[in-house]
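User: Fold both of these, please.

Assistant: Here is the first one.
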Amino acid sequence: MARSVNRKHACAMGALLGLPDGAESRVVKAFVGNAGAFAMLLSLAATVCAKVHAYGRPRAPASFVGLLQVLAADGAVFFGLAAVFLCIARFLPRRQWLGGILACIVFGLAVVNAAYLFVAGDQISTAVVRSGVERLPDAWRILKHETSARTVGVIVLLTLLAIVVHRATRRDRCPVGSIPIGVSTTLAIMFGLISMQATQAGALQVSGLVDNGLLRLASTQGSLFDAGESASTGYIHYAPLVAKLARQDATKRLNVVVVVLESTRQDYVDPSSDRASMPNLLELAERGLQFTQARAVVPHTSKALFSLFCGRVPPLHLRLVEHSVGVNAICVPELLRRGGYETVFMQSAVGAFEDRARAVHRWGFRQFESWETIQGEPLGYLASDDLSISKPFDEWLGARTKEEPFFATLLTSGPHHPYPLPSAMEPMLTEAGIALDTLGPADRYRLLVRREDDLVRYVYESLKRHQYLDKTLLVVLGDHGEGFGDKGVLQHDNNFFEEGLRVPLVFYGPGVPTRVDNAPASLLDVAPTILELIGHNALPDTTPLEGRSLLDPGRPPRPHFFACYFEGYCYGSVEQGAKYVVFPLQGRGGVFDLNQDPQEHQPRNLLAADSETMERIKKLVSNVVREHGSWGLPEVQIGDWICARNAHCSHPKAPPGGMFVRDEKQTKSVTQAP
């Protein structure tokens, strides 16, 4: 009897939480004591933390309003689900096990979405889940690298605390009344109304950060148009160019050096920007041909390299079908190799990641140097110090005895997430009185961009020292940009804003005009421009290049296509000062006026009613080659790299699993490897 009285008293007062008697106590205890409702509160808390982290520190003045709208859809979904679980507990007490299963599923998905937001700055989708399953080892290694022992400890402690609070409150066995259900329903409706006004968040609405991750994952809404899947258009071999190259005097042919800057944005070269950090590249641009409006096609390195070398829109598929034997492409390195050029590809990153050895061999390179042979200081999970490439490149130039020209590519990796700094930069920071732990991701990124700018200078000096400068075409460009939350997007894979697409593009060398070109350009245009600069200005009509040479300053304007890395996430084009973005899976789109709104803060909704615009984008998408990897991966051997058919590439010095992990002992041993 006394126990029953005490239990009723506890239900009314919330003794454990120290709450006064009244409705507030009953509401809180109902939420905490019901497993489903409590799981939704925890899901909302995890989502709020992750979105605040992804939202970053936007420079838009109404940041608080934007943040509220970013979280509104989540409040509506999780409070709505909490009301459902409370109703089950009140009206269907014997079916609570069903609600428990649903709550576990929702909570698990919310945690996965929050983790993905922390790491990638984006929310999960079916494409993300499919990619994670197909590349589970890579995803697991990245997660291990991003998760410190302290983070794991905090998560465990918070989980144990939540369990203790829930079980202690549940002992009171308080019946669920109408007030908690009413409060949860009211909150869901209130947040839902705020979410409906989220278009006021401008660029954040277009970024998708205002969506709820679970609704986005479960959405079956039709697209604004059916992009379909066009069959492969095939790739035509252009033998006439090979024959013409072979007939030329080897001593009169220009060498080509392409420096690809990982995750490097155009505004870090722009002298008018407060982010300008590349004086060496800027000096080179002032003496050559600079394009200020160049954009990536797909903001992912493997896809960008395919666009760069092959002059084609890459297959819009997560699988690395660019390596496939079924992609019948002759890319510029392969074309020049067949015409007598020596080809070499060097990168500071781990070569095992995304089987880069097979890719560069497929594109025409016959020598491949990566971290496995260069052994620079590891940074993050796949990068290393970019200056580690300078010595091997200089030695390679000095050791050359052949008279034939060469096509060399150097790919940096330092500015790739998660932006750790090489130890060689620490003395500079100490001298400047800057503590390393006070630098945020954007600060470290800027220093790493400055580091790769030093590589540009070393490449220039090496060419000059070995007397190649006056007979070499030097091309420097970014593969894609990078985001830091200014518009609700982190990193690059699905970053369709200018920060993710606009990249530096500079040509320097014999026959290169000196000017700044402000007309739109694409990485698709690099291959035909290189061919024209080395003496092939009369390309046959059958040349399968979707890009066009950029040497004509009066070239007619045309749409420049782009797409997000995750298939179906976004498509778009830039044409005549406007950027159109379509999200087929979400059933919406937006258009930015880049002339009036260069920072992309105020998009206009792109509705199905805009029939002319929609038809134009639909035609662009339908003409894109969308090959889906039904072919096998070829067997390749390049140096010590062995790529078995339909298997990953291997190298005797590759790190375990093809990535670095957050382990000081392993990192030390890897760094000191011979």
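And the second sequence with its predicted structure:
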Amino acid sequence: MQIREAQKRVADLNRKMRRRPLDNPDFGGLWNHLREELDEIWKEYDRGTKQGLFEELADAQVLLLALTHSAGADMETELEAKMNINEQRTWTPPDEEGVIRHATDPRTPISDDGTTSDET
């Protein structure tokens, strides 16, 4: 299934679930539900149950698509644009919690002394 098609199916399901109309979306409710699903992902990962983990990852993806639709964005377009940016970035080594962050942003000009406006 293509991302755009999945986003449409999620929007149709939200209407079936009688969420508030998408022109007045319940963004906060979707956000709170996503946060619950993120906690469930970690619990399934911690348990080591692949099928449970995969189901929770899918639940979170459905909610991300619902949030994207509620915000009026097209996830396929946004993903393509973001991947183009990320592919141009340089990345830090993992920190003490294993988080890797971008060290540079191709949208931020670098001055003659090698610094960026992000560093000020």
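Helices lie at 3-16, 27-47, 50-70, 75-88.
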